[in-house]
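Appendix B, example 12.
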Amino acid sequence: MKKRMLLCLAILVYAALFAGCWDSRELDTLAIVTGIGIDASEKAGKANYVLQVGKVRPIAGDTAPEDSKDGNAYILKEESDSILEAINLMQCESSRILFLHHTQALLFGEEIARQGILPQIDFFLRDQEIRMEVRILVIEGKAEDVLKAKFRQEVSPSVAIARMMNNNESVSEYLETSLLNFALRLHDDTMAQVLPLARLNEEDGESWLETVGLVVLKGGRVVGRLDGKLTNGYILSRGKIKAGSITVATDKGRATLNILHSDSCAKPIVGDDGEIVLRQKIEATMSLGELKGFSDMTIDEIMNHLRGEAEKEMVAQVQNCFVAGQAMNADLFGVGSLIKKKMPQRWETLKVRWDTLYPRARLDVEATAELVDTGQSTNILRKGDRK
């Protein structure tokens, strides 16, 4: 009995001594980083690293510090040839420990993205504080300008970016740009990677971000960009669209169709002479969003007409995106990956010549559109109609 009591006492003592997290830190000792920006430097081999750090809000009843009127965050900046060295230098400027775990976004200026982002990505993948869910975005211009901007709705640019990216990802999982997802794509040695491209707009002292397309990366370097229509062609080719729209313009009128769902499948064919053809089928379910014109047609005639025109538009957008990728010699559609998966032995003979074979590949696209809904109205408003 005495031994049992001593054992219980020892357990209680050890529990008290070793309770808590081994690496816990008090909140009032941390400088919480919400965004990280990386821009090109005029000095060879160096880059400009920018941290957006959230300001501590005063407790109710306390007087807010004078500089809190300038915003909810402050900026730390260093020029260095190493992001780790830059962070260590910025740490010397802060009275608190820089804490990266709550970083919402990693922003790369377009110029540094053209030079290559693999060294920085390597650091973020190794760092134990950075979450794998953090979003990556390329900025048209400088990332620093975005982190310094005062956004018209969100109190923090980094929070605004994270929410914008979540909205993009609700369209298609192939627009998901987390650090983990990007790292997984880098392991595919043939398929090009894509990242969202955003532009900072300003008016009356307020700012907002606008997604203007995608940048295409090969080997971690930006080699080109896709505009809105080419981006639409890209996500149509990848499939699994959950939202979005497509505009159809004909001599009868103009219509915007809401994409409710889309899927695709692809099959590579390799001829004896090395000719490569990718056969792709795309199926999309749509609803009618907006109509202009079509005054001499019934609603049934319009739906049948738009079905065929939507299929033509999908084929054109996908084909144009494929050609754009070939012009960059960037395999956006994963043709090489499909051949490697389905014909591994044949791939061994093709991979050494892939950079010369891919630009000559052909794409055969077959698209099927199903229009299932006309919206709340089944009629067409015409000039002179009366209620």
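Residues 61-69 have pLDDT under 50 and may be disordered. The first helix runs from residue 2 to 18.
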